[in-house]
Amino acid sequence: MKLPWQQMKRQSRQVAAPPLQQYRACPSCGVESDLIECTDALCSLKDFQFFTDQQGLNRADHRIVACAHCGLLYTNPCYTPSGFQQLFAKAGLSYGHTAERIVEQVEWVARHFPQACSLLDVGCGGGDLLKALPQTMQRFGLDVDALVLETAAKNALDVVFEVCDFDGLSDLPQTDVITLFHVLEHLANPAQFLKQLRQLAKKGTQLVVEVPVVERAVVEQDRDIVGFFTIQHLTHFSKVSLENMLAASGWQVTHVEAMSGYNGWRVVADPKTLNTSKVAKDKTSLPAANAYLTVWRDNIASVEQRIATLATAPQIMVWGGGQHTEYLALLTGLFKRDAEFVIVDSDPLKQGQTYHGIPVLAPEQVLEAEWLEGEFPIVISTYGGQESVVEILAAKGVDPLRVMTLYDRTQRY
Ligand SMILES: [Zn+2]
Predict the structure, then answer these.
(1) Host domain of residue 28
(2) What's the pLDDT at 16?
(3) How far apart, in whole angstroms, are the C-alpha atoms of residue 289 and residue 237?
(4) Do residues 79 and 117 share a domain?
(5) Number of domains in the chain
């Protein structure tokens, strides 16, 4: 048996596809005007494919703009609700509930809010944070993912979970603390949601919001070609634009903190009188975005240099078939060379499918068929998972000279 090598064939986009995206007003100040402050969109990727082939039905354009009125960086067009469901169906929505992060968050909540008796975690996923908090605390979790919540509820009978699409909040109890860890940047209407949380708040409720911010993307010199302006985020905050949005939604920031080791900017806010004044102008976002885009273009160039060393390899195995691979396809020459490919991915939703005509295989399938034997190079196409793939291949005795990593160092988000 030989590997089912294929050249990449990008299908043309279906003209009859239902509208998956729509243009929108600024999600912070609501101004609908000529929104782009610079001559072109800051970052623009045409015809981005979400995961495996679906006859061009899972394609979207990715375009970042700066609001001419309040300075907010955001994705425009934005996904329609049905577009979001369709495009992210195979994404396995993950808000980064890694074990280390949970330990830190629990300790942080205990230190900052020693008197708190109740907590609402928005975007709670499998409820890992809530389960790790003291049982004496009343705990509530909200998430969009009904299936994940169903499992979570079975494992934590003393926690109340509710499905929520973030457009309307049902009858939730008032709590002492509300947490949103890496949630706000994923919402289509973040300011509207913050206002709803403000209405839910009682005197003394503390709101905790953590998001990645554009200034830290520059500081951390993140090498990932997916990078700060990922297609998964709908708003791209700066420290100032986050505070401005909170202020205009009835929240006064009282504490800020940069998380160490990853791009997380954590703020605590108090409820204040909800004024309907305009969102203040943020003049920091656009310069920071441009500084970051310089770093990002360098990152792409450095990945391209490594790919160039593959020379004329006729067959290449790409390990990783997720979003990172689509960025590689759009931004680099990897798949544009005259070569055949196979893709290996551990996600069962992708296995047995094709990605631009290239078969996606399961790691076990490759190992069982002894398909790693041969001379062909193996390119690792994942940022966060690079080191673990290196280990898997080393454990199978693959010659390290055949294994191409695209990054010198990686960091966890
Ligand atoms: Zn605006």
Answers:
(1) 21-87
(2) 59
(3) 10
(4) no
(5) 3
- On whether the CB atoms of residues 27 and 69 are closer than 8 A, the answer is no
Report yes or no on 11 lying in a domain: no
Interval between CA 69 and ligand 1 midpoint (Å): 5
Pick the range with the lowest mean pLDDT from 129-143, 165-179, 310-324, 380-394.
165-179
Indicate whether 129 and 168 sit together in one domain. yes
- For residue 27, the CA-to-ligand 1 centroid distance in Å is 7
Distance separating alpha carbons of residues 50 and 74, to the nearest angstrom: 19
Ligand 1 centre to CA of 83 (Å) is 23
Per-residue confidence at 40, pLDDT binned at 50, 70, 90?
low
Does one domain contain both 119 and 73? no
What's the CA-to-centroid distance between 147 and ligand 1, angstroms? 35
CA distance 82 to 85: 5
For residue 318, name the pLDDT band (cuts at 50, 70, 90). Answer: very high
Q: Once rounded to an integer, what is the mean pLDDT over residues 311-315?
A: 91
Query: 230 with 321, same domain?
Result: no
Q: Using the mean position of ligand 1's atoms as its centre, give its distance from the Cα of residue 67 in Å.
A: 5
Residue 92 domain-assigned? no
- Span from the CA of 282 to the centroid of ligand 1 (angstroms): 9
Kindly state whether residues 120 and 156 are assigned to the same domain. Answer: yes
Instruction: Report CA(295)–ligand 1 centroid distance (Å).
Output: 25
Spacing, Cα 79 to ligand 1 middle (Å): 18
Neighbours of ion ligand 1 (CB under 5 A): 26, 28-29, 67, 69-70, 72
Phi–psi pair at 391, nearest 5 degrees: -65, -45
Say how many Å lie between the first and final Cα of the chain, rounded.
40
Q: How far is the CA of 190 from the centre of ligand 1 (A)?
A: 12
The CA 319 to ligand 1 mean position distance, Å, reads: 40
Residue 95 pLDDT exceeds 60: no
Distance 280 CA to ligand 1 centre (A): 9
Residues facing residue 74 across a β-bridge: 65, 235
pLDDT of 18 over the 80 cut: no
Q: pLDDT by residue (tens digit) across 71-93?
A: 999 999 999 988 888 888 766 54
Query: What is the tens place of the pLDDT at every residue in 269-309?
Result: 999 987 667 899 999 999 999 999 999 999 999 999 999 99
CA 209 / ligand 1 centre spacing (Å) = 20
- What is the residue whose two structure tokens read 């992708």? 350
Q: What is the pTM of this model?
A: 0.92
The edge-to-edge listing of strands for the beta sheet with 378-380 is 354-355, 358-361, 340-344, 315-319, 378-380, 403-404
